[in-house]
Automatic annotation (TrEMBL):
This is Large ribosomal subunit protein uL2. Belongs to the universal ribosomal protein uL2 family. GO terms for biological process: cytoplasmic translation. One of the primary rRNA binding proteins. Required for association of the 30S and 50S subunits to form the 70S ribosome, for tRNA binding and peptide bond formation. It has been suggested to have peptidyltransferase activity; this is somewhat controversial. Makes several contacts with the 16S rRNA in the 70S ribosome. The gene is rplB. Keywords: Ribonucleoprotein, Ribosomal protein, RNA-binding, rRNA-binding. It comes from Fuerstiella marisgermanici. Residues 256-278 have a biased composition (Basic residues). InterPro entries: NA-bd_OB-fold, Rib_uL2_dom2, Ribosomal_uL2, Ribosomal_uL2_bac/org-type, Ribosomal_uL2_C, Ribosomal_uL2_dom3, Ribosomal_uL2_RNA-bd_dom, Translation_prot_SH3-like_sf. One of its GO terms (molecular function) is structural constituent of ribosome. It comes from the Bacteria. The keyword Glycosyltransferase does not apply. Residues 233-285 are annotated as: Disordered. One of its GO terms (cellular component) is large ribosomal subunit. Residues 44-120 form the Large ribosomal subunit protein uL2 RNA-binding domain.
Length: 285
C-alpha cells in the first residue's frame, strides 16, 4: 500500500500521484456479479430535478458493490478470498466466502489479507476484521464501521484511514471517541468492527489535472466573488474585490464558523464532547 508518482512528462502529470494498488489481490478480477447493482447518477439533483448538491455530474459509469454493513451472519467463519477496489468509496473492500458458501463484501481494515478468517457475533475473539457488540470489545481497541442504533448497520467511521477508540462502558452505554475528536455515547448493543479502515494514504493523492476530477463526477467549482450579484451574494463590484462580507453560500448561509447542526436534534444528548474546530482547535459548542 503506497503512492506512485508520475514522471513530469506533461503539466498535468507534474506532481500528480496515484495509489499503487499493492493490496489488490487480482486486478483483472471482475466484481462478484450477485453483489453488484447498477448505480444511477443523479448529477446532484433531487426527485424534483432541482440541484441540491452543486458541482456534480458526468463521471465514469459505475457498478455499486453491496456492502455488508450489518455483519449479522453470527458464529459462521468466513474466509477472505480477495481484496478489491471499490469506485464508490475511498477504502478497499474484501470479498468474504462463508463456510455455507454465501459471499459478502465487507470494508477491508488495514492489515487484512486474502486467506484471513473473519467472524461476527457476541462470543468471537476481538481480532482484526471481526465484528462484535461494543459490550464485548475491550476498552482502548481501535474500531470502525460503528452502528448508531442496534441492528441498523454501521454508519460511522467508514472512510479510508479512519478509526475510533472505545473509551469505556457503563451499564447499557458505551463511550466512543470518533476521528473528529467528538466523544459520543452509544448503546452497548451496537456493533463495530475491529481494526483501522485501510488505504490510509488516500488523502495524500494529488490529482494533478481537472480531468481526473471529471472522471470522478466532480464538475468545476466557480468562486462566488467571480460571479455577478444576481448569481451570488459575494458577486459584483468594480475591479477585483474580496467580497465585502463574510464568506457564504449562494443562499447566504455562512461558510466559516457557522453552526450546521440542528439545535433540537434528538441525538444531541448522546454527544459528551463536541468535535474540535479544524481552524482554531477549540471545542465546538
Amino acid at each position: 500500500m503506497g503512492i506512485r508518482f508520475y514522471k513530469p512528462v506533461t503539466p498535468g502529470r507534474r506532481g500528480a500521484s496515484v495509489s499503487d494498488f499493492a493490496e489488490i489481490t487480482d486486478r483483472k478480477k471482475r466484481p462478484e456479479k450477485s453483489l453488484t447493482v447498477r448505480k444511477k447518477m443523479t448529477g446532484g439533483r433531487n426527485n424534483q430535478g432541482k440541484i441540491t448538491a452543486r458541482h456534480r455530474g458526468g463521471g465514469h459509469k459505475r457498478l455499486y458493490r453491496i456492502i455488508d454493513f450489518k455483519r449479522t451472519k453470527d458464529d459462521v467463519v468466513g474466509t477472505v478470498t480477495h481484496i478489491e477496489y471499490d469506485p464508490n468509496r475511498t477504502c478497499r473492500i474484501a470479498l468474504v466466502e462463508y463456510a455455507d458458501g454465501e459471499k459478502r463484501y465487507i470494508l477491508a481494515p488495514e492489515g487484512l489479507k486474502a486467506g484471513a478468517k473473519v467472524q461476527s457475533g457476541e462470543t468471537v475473539e476481538p481480532v482484526l476484521g471481526n465484528c462484535m457488540p461494543l459490550s464485548a470489545i475491550p476498552p482502548g481497541t481501535d474500531i470502525h464501521n460503528i452502528e448508531m442504533q442496534p441492528g441498523r448497520g454501521g454508519q460511522m467511521v467508514r472512510s479510508a484511514g479512519t478509526r475510533a477508540v472505545l473509551n469505556a462502558r457503563e451499564g447499557r452505554w458505551a463511550q466512543v471517541t470518533l476521528p473528529s475528536g467528538e466523544v459520543r455515547r452509544l448503546p452497548s448493543k451496537c456493533r463495530a468492527t475491529i481494526g483501522v479502515v485501510g488505504n490510509h494514504e488516500h488523502s495524500a493523492i494529488v490529482y494533478g489535472k481537472a480531468g481526473r476530477r471529471r472522471w470522478l463526477g466532480w464538475r468545476p467549482h466557480v468562486r462566488g466573488t467571480c460571479m455577478n450579484p444576481v448569481a451570488h451574494p459575494m458577486g459584483g463590484g468594480e475591479g477585483r474585490n474580496s467580497g465585502g462580507r463574510h464568506p457564504c453560500s449562494p443562499t447566504g448561509k455562512l461558510s466559516k464558523g457557522g453552526r450546521t447542526r440542528t439545535k433540537r436534534k434528538a441525538s444531541n444528548k448522546a454527544i459528551i464532547r463536541r468535535r474540535r474546530s479544524r481552524r482554531y482547535g477549540e471545542v465546538k459548542v
